[in-house]
Amino acid sequence: MRIFKFGGASVKDADGVQNLVKVLKQVGHENTLLVVSAMGKTTNAMEKVVNSYFEDKNALSSAVQEVIEYHNTILLDLFQTNKHPVFEKVKVLFDEVQGFLVWNKSPNYNFVYDQVVGYGELVSTTILSAYLNKEGIKNSWLDVRDFIKTDNNYRDAIVNWEKTQERISQGVDKSKFYISQGFLGSDDNNFTTTLGREGSDYTAAIFAYCLNANSVTIWKDVPGVLNADPRYFNEAQLLNKISYREAIELAFYGASVIHPKTLQPLQRKEIPLMVKSFINPEGAGTTVGKGTTLEPQVPCYIMKKDQVLMRLSSLDFSFIVENSISELFKMLHDHKMKVDLIQNSAISFSVCVDNKFGRLQDLLNLLKSRFNVDCYEGVSLYTIRHFNNDAITSLQKGKEILLEQRANETVQLVVK
Questions:
Q1: Which residues contact residue 191 at a Cβ distance below 8 angstroms, ignoring those fewer than 6 apart?
Q2: What residue stretches are annotated with the Aspartate/glutamate/uridylate kinase domain (predicted)?
Q3: Global pTM?
Q4: What proportion of the chain, given as a percentage, has pLDDT over 70?
Q5: DSSP 334-374
């Protein structure tokens, strides 16, 4: 069985949905499970709904209506009439969202986030499944929440592999063609959970692992995995082959094409991952698997924007010893800060973090009671794998470097 994953950009409008069908007709869809994200920027729009729910109830109705109208436009373009049964199915899903926002009593932002935002994937796959049937491609729609079971760490749930393996093994027939949602799971109380932003790639890997799939293909709007993001770097090159280990390194440092958690389950069963273009499905793309570290062997550039650099020193200029560092890591963990870079000396400790959960100010208040703190918000973290002098010189040109760190194959620069 094969696993295909299509992201939001591939189904952002009716033309995108029609192109997806064209891709399936070109490459085949037998014995395939399709994992699909929310359409276009729906996740961002649903986040706006959640924010309105907590911060501006007057804006809530219009925020929901904006999402409904966006999908209705796609529906009308695809089906030409609102008499098709899929209109009622989509309406029911949006009625569920609005109903939840009425009866919910939980003040937990992350819980509410998962219950609301997850409908983006449910709606997109409902529309796509109906359109595939209309085009003569019979499929079975799966609610992924019935198969991927997690803990209740909302917005960043951890998979219960034993329960997930059991459900997928018993509930998925490898000879059929399925369509399901990325990004989502459910906890023991059957509340929706999410696997973190860009978690649809991870969903594809979970299904592949549990089904012993032959391959996973991630369909993107780029030719494959590039050595740099073309939005920020000129003359990006296609990487033809990457080893699992190298891909994990690139993902760890923030390469956006492959989700950091996607690769481990594939590597354990040596399931090849292909990244291909839905614009040019016959293109070779990139293969991630065993073997060659990188082909061609060129520097790889990664940029993470909107990071936070904190420089800490003890109030009395005494040494920052092991106990202090241990305490610092506990503070970072307690405030859900993702650590991207660390550098320390005898009397100072620098850390670059991703303030994903908006807990920075609380953390700073705590740190300033114990340390001297310099904080730089909105910095960018650049990473170059397989760097050379020309690559570093080119990247440094015209930039204010706040911190630099080098290893054998990797250099990282924090830039103001």
A1: 111, 114, 115, 152
A2: 3-277
A3: 0.83
A4: 99
A5: HTTPEEEEEEE-SSEEEEEEE-TTS-HHHHHHHHHTTEEEE
